[in-house]
Amino acid sequence: MGKLLAQLIISGVVLATMHAQANVVINGTRVIYNAEENEATIRLNNNSAQPSLVQVWLDSGDMKSTPETGVSPFIATPPIFRVEPGKSQTVRIIYTHDPLPADRESVFWLNVLDVPPMPVTKSVDDANYMQLAIRSRIKLFYRPKNLTGSAPASADQIKWVLVQNPDGVALRASNNAAFSVSMDNAVIVVGEKEYAVNTEMLLPVSSKLFTVTDLRTIPTGVVLLKYATVNDYGAVVSHSINLPQ
């Protein structure tokens, strides 16, 4: 069964509904695994009128991972299960204690593959349909004990600097904290004009260059950066600062 579901992922899945919407919904946008706990849990809810077969696994950031190729120091149990209509299933995530950094968070991904049942057809015409197995992915943050600082404060402590590149302006973000910062969006405001910034997650103790759309040279005067991050509860938090000149 595990190989069958993995093949569905690799092939892009031919068997599935016309609506690309999962029957089984993850109750949460991320998993926080605190090192002092023996496990973390996440609940999956089947809000549809039909049962679903579900497979779960973890990986280290490979979007093309399958249950056989996903690599991480965590296991999810049960790995395969059926969820009846209107019911839910709790998935336990257990750390195998393979070594991870003790001075910063580590980030992994939880995959949830939802395979709805084949519909019962009554005629040849009824058989003309597509049915999709849908995979969802959310982040898992492994949080060691006694980290310096806090996750909420980390989003306000990012160091931002505009950088002139040959092909335009970029925004360097430096996260010196021990916590990851999940970016939602960002814009640079110059006067009455806004320039979108192409952001992504900032890992602990790391820097990234984000491209700034349509901004060719570093502006003079007051430059405002408005950005939004996602906290441990999945809520979007707004921030704004004046960029250094």
Topology summary:
Elements lengths: L1 H9 L13 E3 L3 E5 L5 E7 L5 E8 L14 E4 L2 E4 L4 E8 L10 E10 L18 E10 L7 H6 L2 E7 L2 E8 L6 E9 L2 E5 L8 E6 L12 E7 L5 E7 L3
Parallel strand pairs: 2-9
Antiparallel strand pairs: 1-3, 3-7, 4-6, 4-8, 5-7, 8-9, 10-11, 11-14, 12-13, 12-15, 15-16
Overview of the molecule:
The termini are far apart. A 5-stranded mixed beta sheet has the order 2-9-8-4-6, covered by helices on one side. A 4-stranded antiparallel beta sheet has the order 1-3-7-5, with no helix packed on it. Helices cover 6% and strands 44% of the residues. The chain has helices at 2-10, 151-156, and strands at 24-26, 30-34, 40-46, 52-59, 74-77, 80-83, 88-95, 106-115, 134-143, 159-165, 168-175, 182-190, 193-197, 206-211, 224-230, 236-242. The radius of gyration is 22 Å and the shape is globular. The chain folds into 2 domains: 2-143, Immunoglobulins (Immunoglobulin-like), CATH 2.60.40.10; 151-242, Immunoglobulins (Immunoglobulin-like, Sandwich). It is mostly beta strands. A hairpin with a 2-residue loop joins strand 12 (182-190) and strand 13 (193-197).
For the sheet with most strands, the description reads: 5 strands, mixed
Mean pLDDT: 89
* Total of helices: 2
Total individual domains: 2
| SS strand fraction | 35-45%
Return the string of H and E elements: HEEEEEEEEEHEEEEEEE
Task: Enter the CATH topology name of the largest domain.
Answer: Immunoglobulin-like
Order of strands across the widest beta sheet? 2-9-8-4-6
Helix content: under 10%
**What is the CATH architecture term of the largest domain?**
Sandwich
CATH superfamily of the largest domain: Immunoglobulins
Number of strand segments: 16
- What is the C-level CATH assignment of the largest domain? Mainly Beta
List the uncertain runs. Answer: 6-19
Compute the separation of the termini in Å. 59 Å
Structural class of the secondary structure composition? mainly beta
The outline comes out as globular
